[in-house]
């Protein structure tokens, strides 16, 4: 018999997303009841400040100063954790909820990237369900697609642009012909950056998300530490414009792939074809690409952040719980998730290289020699007009390993005709 | 306690999709068990011919000549119906399965478009679950996204290109500069067409799918008869090339939208911007666009047909059932689905008109007058060089209602300078 009692929520965290959840529960009470088969009610809320004006009336809900105390209340069925942070109160509240037999819905990618395995095991032991659709790619129901809809597939690859702020900065650099610093400032003023901007522009936030997708896709224990991380701070307007001229766009792209050598997880700026779905992604939009042995390629696109989209993802999980969904956190029991051997840069690729060459006869030949010694062969090369005594040179290589590129970079650094640092960006033919 | 006994399947229909399902169950037995928490086994199969070579060994399964008898077997938990057809054995088998307390997974859009309401009510009464992910947009988990992932949203619009064969014909017409008939023949030779090609090119198959999405999206009873249907047979190479010159592509596009006047459902050729995700859809690929009040716009793309993708969708449903998912067929109890008032062409749009004009002074003025009398105003007009004594003229109108366009077409037909029939295609600014 399905449960027809109300599903009772305690919401910890009343920032943008928490307020969005309150609004949906209130506005769509009847619709949610029709869909879930039972009412969905907010019983208690907890946040830093009780009196802050949030544009929604929270006086009708019980207030708890301590989210852990709220998580333990007998009159809630689900803790909705929207505080964020990989440790501290968020972790304490989630653990308390699980220990006292409550389900958990969270948008907290940092928490799960660092403690997902333990929390999944704890939830299973307690017989509760831990869900996190809102933690990855905002409103796009990608956790559901991967865990449930595509459960008949061996997943071969997961890719995605999953940090809207980085994509905003990169697409605005191209559109406005301004450098990274100017657009970083713009994003900051618009409130697009996390309190610690490194989480965004350093690729950490997107790396968290990738590690969660990889766990579900490959049945492996979450291993965020094994994600090769590279942020977007080194991307110059020049690189964006050179890429555009060759038909590419630069995206902070995550790729997780099971290879013969182990699980490769990387989050780094890549050149992708401008005409591809990933290449055309503008602003804060996210895109996730999933490849499975039966389904082929599935592409999902939507808003990656913001009140409505993230609250929509939270509510998808809440309705699932109201309907009685019982599923393991990462799609199979925590005890069956295997530790994956990390494979660094296992998959070869073509690379874009940009360097400054001294304007001397034979300089290009020296570059070609340095690349050749590292086993890197040249697909295309273009030299621009001189700027003072140096000339910018762009090289597109044939497919090679990251190790070969690193060796080539070392060789180039030793070549006196190469001035400053050479930039190397992977080309992903998505 | 979750059920750890095997989930036992009876498969009715061993065409492309049925064989694909058998292959997945066999190849991924361990993976499926890990994900579902219990083994998934095929107990019995039924098809027209027992001895046909299908490339998979079916001798290990019980054979049933009669799918209805199979549906009633005590040793199956789920009927997987892959025979197709809105009535006849498919309907009889599904009804028998439900009546004897079995769950049903089907890829049969025609069956659900015609009998979905009754079957949903029967399944609920019997306490069984009826799922149909594979019936819409092949491998794209769109039923799941709409019913579950986006359950916190009031859905405002659903759009999609959901017949791969039509999209193949239209994109190949543009690529090869051949007319409709040549590409229809090509699609036929490649086995892309249904036994009754009208199901594809007449838009019926895609209309079935749209009516199912609309039911979930708007909480309404499936009403396929209210879908305004228009096929692609009237689309000429000339229209495709004219559209391309103006930055558009012609797609067989489905749109379902709740308007102030009722539920609009239409499946018809439309001009869409060539640079939009829908405009860029090539070949047999499908795309579904969902708009919700919180989530904004979600776009999902993937293979719309074929053994692997469709079997993937079937297996998604099967794994859901193994995990104990209990959900109403159309996302809420059948008794709560309301009959929606059909609203024909409620939403105004710009239109593309193509006509042949007699090459006489004042001819264009007469066209403008006929349009003006119908209340249709002209955004752009272009006249090409004469061909003999007639000149092709293209008009793009400002936004107007379908009724105004129909009145304009009537007026143009009465104008002696207009030769033959005027073509009118809606422009959807997606």
UniProtKB/TrEMBL annotation, chains A, B:
Pathway: Amino-acid biosynthesis; L-threonine biosynthesis; L-threonine from L-aspartate: step 3/5; Amino-acid biosynthesis; L-methionine biosynthesis via de novo pathway; L-homoserine from L-aspartate: step 3/3. PROSITE patterns: ACT (PS51671). InterPro entries: ACT-like_dom_sf (IPR045865), ACT_dom (IPR002912), Asp/hSer_DH_NAD-bd (IPR005106), HDH (IPR016204), HDH_cat (IPR001342), NAD(P)-bd_dom_sf (IPR036291). Its EC number is 1.1.1.3. Gene3D superfamilies: 3.30.70.260, Dihydrodipicolinate Reductase, domain 2 (3.30.360.10), NAD(P)-binding Rossmann-like Domain (3.40.50.720). It is an enzyme of class 1 (oxidoreductase). The keyword Amino-acid biosynthesis applies. Pfam families: ACT, Homoserine_dh, NAD_binding_3. The keyword Oxidoreductase applies. Keywords: Amino-acid biosynthesis, Methionine biosynthesis, Oxidoreductase, Threonine biosynthesis. Residues 352-426 form the ACT domain. Belongs to the homoserine dehydrogenase family. This is Homoserine dehydrogenase. It comes from Sinisalibacter lacisalsi.
């Amino acid at each position: 018999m399905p449960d027809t009692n109300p599903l009772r929520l305690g919401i910890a965290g009343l920032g943008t997303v928490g307020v969005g959840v309150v609004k949906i529960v209130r506005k769509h009470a009847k619709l949610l009841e029709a869909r879930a088969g039972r009412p969905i009610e907010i019983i208690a809320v907890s946040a830093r400040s009780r009196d802050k004006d949030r544009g929604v009336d929270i006086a009708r809900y019980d207030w708890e100063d301590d989210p852990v105390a709220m998580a333990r209340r007998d009159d809630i069925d689900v803790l909705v954790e929207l505080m964020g942070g990989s440790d501290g109160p968020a972790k304490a509240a989630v653990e308390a909820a699980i220990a006292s037999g409550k389900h958990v819905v969270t948008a907290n990618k940092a928490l799960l990237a660092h403690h997902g395995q333990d929390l999944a095991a704890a939830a299973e032991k307690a017989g509760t369900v831990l869900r996190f659709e809102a933690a990855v790619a905002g409103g796009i129901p990608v956790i559901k697609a991967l865990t449930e809809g595509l459960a008949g597939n061996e997943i071969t690859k997961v890719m995605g642009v999953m940090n809207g702020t980085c994509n905003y900065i990169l697409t605005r650099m191209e559109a406005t012909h301004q450098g990274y610093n100017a657009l970083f400032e713009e994003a900051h003023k618009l409130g697009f950056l996390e309190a610690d901007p490194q989480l965004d522009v350093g690729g950490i936030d997107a790396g968290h998300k990738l590690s969660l997708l990889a766990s579900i896709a490959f049945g492996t224990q979450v291993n965020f530490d094994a994600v090769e991380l590279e942020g977007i701070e080194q991307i110059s307007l020049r690189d964006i414009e050179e890429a555009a001229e060759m038909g590419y766009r630069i995206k902070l792209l995550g790729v997780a792939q099971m290879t013969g050598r182990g699980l490769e997880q990387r989050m780094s700026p890549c050149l992708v074809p401008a005409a591809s779905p990933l290449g055309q992604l503008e602003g804060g939009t996210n895109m996730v690409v999933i490849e499975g042995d039966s389904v082929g390629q599935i592409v999902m696109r939507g808003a990656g952040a913001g009140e409505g989209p993230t609250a929509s993802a939270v509510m998808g999980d809440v309705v699932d719980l109201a309907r009685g969904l019982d599923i393991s956190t990462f799609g199979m029991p925590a005890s069956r998730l295997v530790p994956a051997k990390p494979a660094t840069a296992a998959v070869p690729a073509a690379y874009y290289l940009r360097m400054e060459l001294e304007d001397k006869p034979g300089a290009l030949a020296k570059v070609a020699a340095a690349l050749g010694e590292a086993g890197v062969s040249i697909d295309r090369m273009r030299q621009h007009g001189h700027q003072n005594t140096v000339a910018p040179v762009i090289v597109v290589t044939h497919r090679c390993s990251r190790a070969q590129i690193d060796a080539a970079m070392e060789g180039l650094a030793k070549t006196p005709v190469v001035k400053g640092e050479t930039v190397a960006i992977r080309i992903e033919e998505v």
